[in-house]
Write a structure and sequence with these properties.
By secondary structure, the chain is of the alpha/beta class. 43% of the residues lie in helices and 12% in strands. The chain has a 9-stranded mixed β-sheet with strand order 1-2-6-5-4-3-7-8-9, with helices on both faces. The protein has a 3-stranded antiparallel β-sheet with strand order 10-12-11. Helix 2 crosses helix 6 and helix 5 crosses helix 6. It is globular, with a radius of gyration of 22 Å. InterPro entries: DprA (IPR003488), DprA_WH (IPR041614), DrpA_SLOG (IPR057666), WH-like_DNA-bd_sf (IPR036388).
Length: 380
Protein backbone atom coordinates (compact mmCIF):
# COMPACT_ATOMS: atom_id res chain seq x y z
CA UNK A 1 0.00 0.00 0.00
CA UNK A 2 1.42 3.38 -0.95
CA UNK A 3 1.66 6.24 1.49
CA UNK A 4 -0.97 8.17 -0.46
CA UNK A 5 -3.53 5.35 -0.40
CA UNK A 6 -2.87 4.77 3.31
CA UNK A 7 -3.52 8.44 4.03
CA UNK A 8 -6.76 8.40 2.02
CA UNK A 9 -8.08 5.32 3.84
CA UNK A 10 -7.02 6.79 7.19
CA UNK A 11 -8.71 10.14 6.48
CA UNK A 12 -11.92 8.90 4.93
CA UNK A 13 -12.31 5.39 6.33
CA UNK A 14 -13.91 2.47 4.49
CA UNK A 15 -16.40 3.14 1.72
CA UNK A 16 -19.90 3.49 3.23
CA UNK A 17 -22.45 0.79 2.46
CA UNK A 18 -25.23 1.67 0.00
CA UNK A 19 -28.79 2.37 1.11
CA UNK A 20 -30.30 -1.00 2.21
CA UNK A 21 -33.43 -0.37 0.13
CA UNK A 22 -31.29 0.09 -2.98
CA UNK A 23 -29.47 -3.12 -2.07
CA UNK A 24 -32.82 -4.93 -1.97
CA UNK A 25 -33.64 -3.64 -5.46
CA UNK A 26 -30.20 -4.70 -6.68
CA UNK A 27 -30.47 -8.19 -5.17
CA UNK A 28 -34.02 -8.75 -6.43
CA UNK A 29 -33.04 -7.79 -9.98
CA UNK A 30 -29.81 -9.80 -9.83
CA UNK A 31 -31.61 -12.99 -8.81
CA UNK A 32 -34.47 -12.41 -11.25
CA UNK A 33 -38.21 -12.99 -10.97
CA UNK A 34 -39.34 -16.19 -9.23
CA UNK A 35 -35.80 -17.31 -8.48
CA UNK A 36 -35.90 -20.72 -6.77
CA UNK A 37 -32.75 -19.65 -4.92
CA UNK A 38 -34.28 -16.60 -3.24
CA UNK A 39 -34.81 -18.37 0.07
CA UNK A 40 -31.31 -19.86 -0.02
CA UNK A 41 -29.74 -16.44 -0.58
CA UNK A 42 -31.75 -14.93 2.29
CA UNK A 43 -30.59 -17.71 4.61
CA UNK A 44 -26.97 -17.22 3.55
CA UNK A 45 -26.90 -13.43 3.99
CA UNK A 46 -29.07 -13.43 7.13
CA UNK A 47 -31.71 -11.29 5.39
CA UNK A 48 -29.17 -8.48 4.88
CA UNK A 49 -29.00 -7.37 1.22
CA UNK A 50 -25.98 -5.15 1.93
CA UNK A 51 -24.02 -8.22 2.98
CA UNK A 52 -24.94 -9.87 -0.32
CA UNK A 53 -23.69 -6.78 -2.17
CA UNK A 54 -20.40 -6.78 -0.29
CA UNK A 55 -19.85 -10.50 -0.92
CA UNK A 56 -21.12 -10.56 -4.52
CA UNK A 57 -17.75 -11.72 -5.90
CA UNK A 58 -17.28 -14.57 -3.43
CA UNK A 59 -17.69 -18.29 -3.87
CA UNK A 60 -20.29 -18.27 -1.09
CA UNK A 61 -22.50 -15.88 -3.04
CA UNK A 62 -22.13 -17.97 -6.18
CA UNK A 63 -23.11 -21.14 -4.34
CA UNK A 64 -26.18 -19.49 -2.84
CA UNK A 65 -27.37 -17.48 -5.85
CA UNK A 66 -26.31 -19.72 -8.73
CA UNK A 67 -23.95 -19.14 -11.65
CA UNK A 68 -26.25 -16.87 -13.66
CA UNK A 69 -27.00 -14.51 -10.79
CA UNK A 70 -23.32 -14.51 -9.78
CA UNK A 71 -22.36 -13.31 -13.27
CA UNK A 72 -25.02 -10.60 -13.19
CA UNK A 73 -23.92 -9.52 -9.71
CA UNK A 74 -20.50 -8.42 -10.93
CA UNK A 75 -21.49 -7.15 -14.36
CA UNK A 76 -20.48 -3.52 -15.07
CA UNK A 77 -23.11 -0.99 -14.05
CA UNK A 78 -25.12 -3.42 -11.91
CA UNK A 79 -24.85 -1.58 -8.60
CA UNK A 80 -27.37 -0.57 -5.93
CA UNK A 81 -26.97 3.08 -6.90
CA UNK A 82 -28.10 2.22 -10.43
CA UNK A 83 -31.57 1.57 -8.98
CA UNK A 84 -32.00 5.03 -7.47
CA UNK A 85 -34.06 6.22 -10.47
CA UNK A 86 -36.46 3.32 -9.84
CA UNK A 87 -36.86 4.39 -6.23
CA UNK A 88 -37.31 8.03 -7.24
CA UNK A 89 -39.98 7.09 -9.76
CA UNK A 90 -41.86 5.02 -7.20
CA UNK A 91 -41.89 7.94 -4.79
CA UNK A 92 -43.09 10.30 -7.52
CA UNK A 93 -45.94 7.94 -8.46
CA UNK A 94 -46.96 7.13 -4.88
CA UNK A 95 -45.88 3.48 -5.22
CA UNK A 96 -44.94 1.77 -1.96
CA UNK A 97 -41.74 -0.30 -2.21
CA UNK A 98 -42.00 -3.34 0.05
CA UNK A 99 -38.75 -5.30 0.47
CA UNK A 100 -38.55 -8.61 2.29
CA UNK A 101 -37.84 -6.98 5.67
CA UNK A 102 -40.68 -4.43 5.41
CA UNK A 103 -43.42 -4.67 8.11
CA UNK A 104 -46.09 -5.07 5.41
CA UNK A 105 -44.29 -7.75 3.41
CA UNK A 106 -46.80 -10.64 3.31
CA UNK A 107 -45.84 -13.39 5.71
CA UNK A 108 -47.57 -15.92 3.48
CA UNK A 109 -44.91 -15.34 0.82
CA UNK A 110 -42.04 -15.90 3.25
CA UNK A 111 -43.04 -19.57 3.29
CA UNK A 112 -42.63 -20.18 -0.45
CA UNK A 113 -39.21 -20.96 -1.96
CA UNK A 114 -39.47 -18.57 -4.93
CA UNK A 115 -40.70 -15.50 -3.06
CA UNK A 116 -40.12 -12.06 -4.54
CA UNK A 117 -37.55 -10.09 -2.57
CA UNK A 118 -39.32 -6.81 -3.41
CA UNK A 119 -42.98 -5.98 -4.05
CA UNK A 120 -44.49 -2.77 -5.41
CA UNK A 121 -47.88 -1.67 -4.13
CA UNK A 122 -50.53 0.99 -4.63
CA UNK A 123 -53.35 1.36 -2.15
CA UNK A 124 -53.01 0.08 1.42
CA UNK A 125 -50.39 -2.68 1.77
CA UNK A 126 -51.64 -3.62 5.26
CA UNK A 127 -54.20 -5.87 3.56
CA UNK A 128 -51.40 -8.15 2.35
CA UNK A 129 -51.34 -9.66 5.85
CA UNK A 130 -55.10 -9.89 6.38
CA UNK A 131 -56.03 -13.18 8.09
CA UNK A 132 -58.45 -14.57 5.45
CA UNK A 133 -57.08 -14.05 1.95
CA UNK A 134 -58.93 -16.15 -0.64
CA UNK A 135 -57.67 -16.49 -4.21
CA UNK A 136 -60.37 -16.57 -6.89
CA UNK A 137 -59.40 -17.33 -10.49
CA UNK A 138 -61.04 -18.46 -13.68
CA UNK A 139 -61.56 -18.01 -17.39
CA UNK A 140 -60.86 -14.75 -19.20
CA UNK A 141 -63.82 -15.53 -21.46
CA UNK A 142 -66.46 -16.90 -19.09
CA UNK A 143 -69.98 -17.78 -20.08
CA UNK A 144 -72.97 -16.24 -18.23
CA UNK A 145 -72.97 -19.12 -15.73
CA UNK A 146 -69.37 -18.39 -14.75
CA UNK A 147 -70.00 -14.67 -14.46
CA UNK A 148 -72.99 -15.16 -12.17
CA UNK A 149 -71.21 -17.81 -10.11
CA UNK A 150 -68.20 -15.52 -9.58
CA UNK A 151 -70.44 -12.66 -8.45
CA UNK A 152 -72.50 -14.80 -6.08
CA UNK A 153 -69.56 -16.62 -4.50
CA UNK A 154 -67.34 -13.55 -4.37
CA UNK A 155 -69.96 -11.36 -2.73
CA UNK A 156 -70.81 -14.02 -0.14
CA UNK A 157 -67.16 -14.58 0.77
CA UNK A 158 -66.55 -10.82 0.99
CA UNK A 159 -69.60 -10.38 3.25
CA UNK A 160 -68.20 -13.04 5.56
CA UNK A 161 -64.90 -11.19 5.88
CA UNK A 162 -62.71 -12.87 3.25
CA UNK A 163 -60.33 -10.64 1.28
CA UNK A 164 -60.54 -11.67 -2.38
CA UNK A 165 -57.20 -11.99 -4.20
CA UNK A 166 -57.23 -12.16 -7.98
CA UNK A 167 -55.28 -11.11 -11.05
CA UNK A 168 -57.07 -7.93 -12.22
CA UNK A 169 -57.42 -9.55 -15.66
CA UNK A 170 -60.32 -9.71 -18.09
CA UNK A 171 -63.13 -12.12 -17.33
CA UNK A 172 -63.61 -13.80 -13.99
CA UNK A 173 -60.70 -12.05 -12.24
CA UNK A 174 -62.50 -8.77 -12.80
CA UNK A 175 -65.86 -10.24 -11.77
CA UNK A 176 -64.40 -11.42 -8.46
CA UNK A 177 -62.88 -8.01 -7.73
CA UNK A 178 -66.16 -6.30 -8.62
CA UNK A 179 -68.03 -8.61 -6.28
CA UNK A 180 -65.87 -7.46 -3.35
CA UNK A 181 -66.12 -3.81 -4.38
CA UNK A 182 -69.92 -4.12 -4.52
CA UNK A 183 -69.84 -5.26 -0.89
CA UNK A 184 -67.56 -2.33 0.06
CA UNK A 185 -65.03 -4.98 1.08
CA UNK A 186 -61.25 -4.99 0.54
CA UNK A 187 -59.78 -6.91 -2.37
CA UNK A 188 -56.22 -7.37 -3.67
CA UNK A 189 -55.28 -7.20 -7.34
CA UNK A 190 -52.04 -8.95 -8.31
CA UNK A 191 -50.34 -7.53 -11.39
CA UNK A 192 -48.37 -9.35 -14.09
CA UNK A 193 -47.17 -6.05 -15.56
CA UNK A 194 -45.19 -3.10 -14.11
CA UNK A 195 -46.98 -1.46 -11.22
CA UNK A 196 -47.51 1.81 -13.11
CA UNK A 197 -49.52 0.04 -15.82
CA UNK A 198 -52.98 -1.51 -15.73
CA UNK A 199 -53.67 -4.51 -17.93
CA UNK A 200 -56.12 -4.49 -19.50
CA UNK A 201 -56.36 -0.69 -19.67
CA UNK A 202 -60.15 -1.00 -19.49
CA UNK A 203 -59.73 -1.97 -15.82
CA UNK A 204 -58.31 1.40 -14.75
CA UNK A 205 -61.58 2.47 -13.12
CA UNK A 206 -61.85 -0.90 -11.34
CA UNK A 207 -58.27 -0.55 -10.14
CA UNK A 208 -59.03 2.82 -8.58
CA UNK A 209 -61.92 1.28 -6.66
CA UNK A 210 -59.69 -1.56 -5.47
CA UNK A 211 -57.02 0.89 -4.29
CA UNK A 212 -59.63 2.90 -2.35
CA UNK A 213 -60.32 -0.08 -0.06
CA UNK A 214 -57.61 -2.62 -0.73
CA UNK A 215 -54.44 -2.67 -2.81
CA UNK A 216 -52.80 -3.60 -6.09
CA UNK A 217 -49.46 -5.38 -5.86
CA UNK A 218 -46.83 -6.81 -8.18
CA UNK A 219 -43.14 -7.59 -8.46
CA UNK A 220 -42.29 -5.39 -11.44
CA UNK A 221 -41.19 -1.77 -10.90
CA UNK A 222 -42.59 1.15 -12.89
CA UNK A 223 -41.20 1.59 -16.37
CA UNK A 224 -39.84 -1.95 -16.74
CA UNK A 225 -40.03 -3.31 -20.31
CA UNK A 226 -39.75 -6.72 -21.89
CA UNK A 227 -41.71 -8.79 -19.35
CA UNK A 228 -44.13 -10.39 -21.81
CA UNK A 229 -46.37 -13.36 -21.12
CA UNK A 230 -43.99 -14.69 -18.49
CA UNK A 231 -45.09 -11.88 -16.17
CA UNK A 232 -48.61 -13.28 -16.00
CA UNK A 233 -47.38 -16.81 -15.36
CA UNK A 234 -45.17 -15.55 -12.51
CA UNK A 235 -48.10 -13.46 -11.24
CA UNK A 236 -50.10 -16.68 -10.81
CA UNK A 237 -47.66 -17.98 -8.20
CA UNK A 238 -48.17 -14.79 -6.14
CA UNK A 239 -51.95 -15.26 -6.15
CA UNK A 240 -51.50 -18.84 -4.95
CA UNK A 241 -48.83 -17.87 -2.43
CA UNK A 242 -50.78 -15.02 -0.87
CA UNK A 243 -54.03 -16.94 -0.49
CA UNK A 244 -54.94 -19.29 2.33
CA UNK A 245 -57.20 -21.12 -0.12
CA UNK A 246 -57.72 -20.99 -3.89
CA UNK A 247 -61.11 -21.14 -5.63
CA UNK A 248 -61.45 -22.00 -9.32
CA UNK A 249 -64.76 -20.59 -10.53
CA UNK A 250 -64.65 -21.72 -14.15
CA UNK A 251 -61.73 -22.91 -16.25
CA UNK A 252 -60.90 -24.91 -19.34
CA UNK A 253 -58.63 -27.93 -19.04
CA UNK A 254 -55.77 -26.07 -20.72
CA UNK A 255 -55.61 -22.57 -19.30
CA UNK A 256 -53.54 -20.16 -17.25
CA UNK A 257 -55.83 -20.90 -14.33
CA UNK A 258 -54.36 -24.38 -14.12
CA UNK A 259 -50.90 -22.93 -13.57
CA UNK A 260 -52.27 -21.09 -10.52
CA UNK A 261 -53.69 -24.39 -9.29
CA UNK A 262 -50.31 -26.08 -9.74
CA UNK A 263 -48.63 -23.34 -7.67
CA UNK A 264 -51.28 -23.69 -4.94
CA UNK A 265 -50.64 -27.43 -4.78
CA UNK A 266 -46.88 -26.82 -4.65
CA UNK A 267 -47.32 -24.42 -1.72
CA UNK A 268 -49.76 -26.67 0.15
CA UNK A 269 -52.77 -24.37 -0.29
CA UNK A 270 -56.20 -26.06 -0.39
CA UNK A 271 -57.95 -25.84 -3.76
CA UNK A 272 -61.72 -25.59 -4.26
CA UNK A 273 -63.64 -25.65 -7.53
CA UNK A 274 -67.17 -24.77 -8.56
CA UNK A 275 -68.81 -27.54 -10.63
CA UNK A 276 -70.88 -27.11 -13.78
CA UNK A 277 -72.73 -29.44 -16.16
CA UNK A 278 -70.49 -31.63 -18.28
CA UNK A 279 -71.58 -29.92 -21.48
CA UNK A 280 -69.89 -26.65 -20.54
CA UNK A 281 -66.50 -26.59 -22.25
CA UNK A 282 -65.49 -23.55 -20.20
CA UNK A 283 -65.92 -25.59 -17.00
CA UNK A 284 -64.21 -28.80 -18.14
CA UNK A 285 -61.07 -27.97 -16.17
CA UNK A 286 -62.99 -27.13 -13.00
CA UNK A 287 -64.98 -30.37 -13.21
CA UNK A 288 -61.82 -32.39 -13.83
CA UNK A 289 -60.15 -30.91 -10.75
CA UNK A 290 -63.06 -32.15 -8.64
CA UNK A 291 -63.22 -35.55 -10.36
CA UNK A 292 -59.50 -36.18 -9.88
CA UNK A 293 -59.56 -35.15 -6.23
CA UNK A 294 -57.24 -32.20 -6.79
CA UNK A 295 -59.98 -29.81 -5.62
CA UNK A 296 -62.84 -29.93 -3.16
CA UNK A 297 -66.24 -29.06 -4.55
CA UNK A 298 -67.73 -25.75 -3.44
CA UNK A 299 -71.40 -25.00 -4.02
CA UNK A 300 -71.84 -21.98 -1.76
CA UNK A 301 -69.56 -19.77 0.31
CA UNK A 302 -70.77 -21.56 3.45
CA UNK A 303 -68.82 -24.63 2.33
CA UNK A 304 -65.58 -22.69 2.83
CA UNK A 305 -66.29 -20.49 5.82
CA UNK A 306 -65.50 -22.90 8.66
CA UNK A 307 -62.12 -23.98 7.21
CA UNK A 308 -61.28 -20.29 6.83
CA UNK A 309 -62.37 -19.46 10.37
CA UNK A 310 -65.18 -17.22 9.11
CA UNK A 311 -68.90 -17.04 9.82
CA UNK A 312 -71.72 -15.87 7.58
CA UNK A 313 -73.66 -14.76 10.66
CA UNK A 314 -70.84 -12.61 12.02
CA UNK A 315 -68.74 -11.25 9.15
CA UNK A 316 -65.44 -9.63 9.90
CA UNK A 317 -65.66 -5.84 9.61
CA UNK A 318 -64.08 -4.33 6.50
CA UNK A 319 -61.53 -2.21 8.32
CA UNK A 320 -57.80 -1.98 8.01
CA UNK A 321 -56.01 -4.91 9.55
CA UNK A 322 -53.91 -3.76 12.52
CA UNK A 323 -50.18 -3.92 11.86
CA UNK A 324 -48.37 -6.97 13.18
CA UNK A 325 -45.93 -6.52 16.02
CA UNK A 326 -42.40 -7.89 15.71
CA UNK A 327 -43.31 -10.69 18.12
CA UNK A 328 -46.41 -11.62 16.10
CA UNK A 329 -44.43 -11.70 12.87
CA UNK A 330 -41.80 -13.91 14.53
CA UNK A 331 -44.41 -16.40 15.74
CA UNK A 332 -46.20 -16.51 12.37
CA UNK A 333 -42.90 -17.01 10.58
CA UNK A 334 -42.27 -20.08 12.79
CA UNK A 335 -45.69 -21.56 12.04
CA UNK A 336 -46.18 -24.78 10.17
CA UNK A 337 -49.27 -26.51 8.84
CA UNK A 338 -49.69 -28.82 11.84
CA UNK A 339 -51.18 -28.18 15.28
CA UNK A 340 -48.55 -27.55 17.96
CA UNK A 341 -48.55 -27.16 21.71
CA UNK A 342 -47.53 -23.97 23.47
CA UNK A 343 -44.27 -25.57 24.59
CA UNK A 344 -43.43 -26.88 21.10
CA UNK A 345 -44.06 -23.48 19.55
CA UNK A 346 -42.05 -21.71 22.25
CA UNK A 347 -39.06 -23.95 21.53
CA UNK A 348 -39.44 -23.42 17.80
CA UNK A 349 -39.55 -19.62 18.17
CA UNK A 350 -36.90 -19.40 20.90
CA UNK A 351 -39.34 -17.70 23.28
CA UNK A 352 -40.46 -18.31 26.84
CA UNK A 353 -43.96 -19.81 27.07
CA UNK A 354 -45.05 -16.98 29.38
CA UNK A 355 -44.05 -14.41 26.75
CA UNK A 356 -45.56 -16.43 23.90
CA UNK A 357 -49.03 -16.86 25.43
CA UNK A 358 -50.21 -13.22 25.11
CA UNK A 359 -48.89 -13.09 21.54
CA UNK A 360 -50.95 -16.16 20.67
CA UNK A 361 -54.00 -14.59 22.29
CA UNK A 362 -53.69 -11.50 20.07
CA UNK A 363 -53.23 -13.66 17.00
CA UNK A 364 -56.28 -15.71 17.98
CA UNK A 365 -58.39 -12.57 18.36
CA UNK A 366 -57.29 -11.38 14.93
CA UNK A 367 -58.27 -14.71 13.34
CA UNK A 368 -54.76 -15.87 12.46
CA UNK A 369 -54.56 -18.66 15.05
CA UNK A 370 -57.13 -21.10 16.44
CA UNK A 371 -56.74 -22.90 19.76
CA UNK A 372 -57.73 -26.56 19.65
CA UNK A 373 -58.62 -28.86 22.55
CA UNK A 374 -55.61 -29.72 24.69
CA UNK A 375 -54.16 -26.20 24.32
CA UNK A 376 -52.79 -26.90 20.85
CA UNK A 377 -52.67 -24.19 18.22
CA UNK A 378 -53.27 -24.29 14.47
CA UNK A 379 -52.31 -21.36 12.23
CA UNK A 380 -55.00 -20.30 9.76
Amino acid sequence: MTGESWVQQDLFGPEPLPDPLLCWLWLDCTLGSASPRAGRVLDWCGGDPCRAWEARATTDFRQAAGAGAARRAVSPGNTPEAFRPVLDRCRALGVEVIPFDHPDYPLALTRIPDMPLVLYCTGDPAWLNAPALVGMVGSRRPDPYGQQAAENLGRALARAGAVIVSGLADGLDSECHRAAVAEHAPTIGVQGVPIDRTYPASNRALREKIEANGCVVGEYPPGLDGIGRNGFLQRNRLIAGLARALVVVQARERSGTMSTVAHAERYGRPVWALPADVGREDSAGSNRLIQSGRARMVLTAEDMLEPLGLSAAAPAPAVQAPPLTDAERKVLACAGGEAVSLEELAARCGMQAAALAPVLMRLELSGRVKMLPGQRYIFL
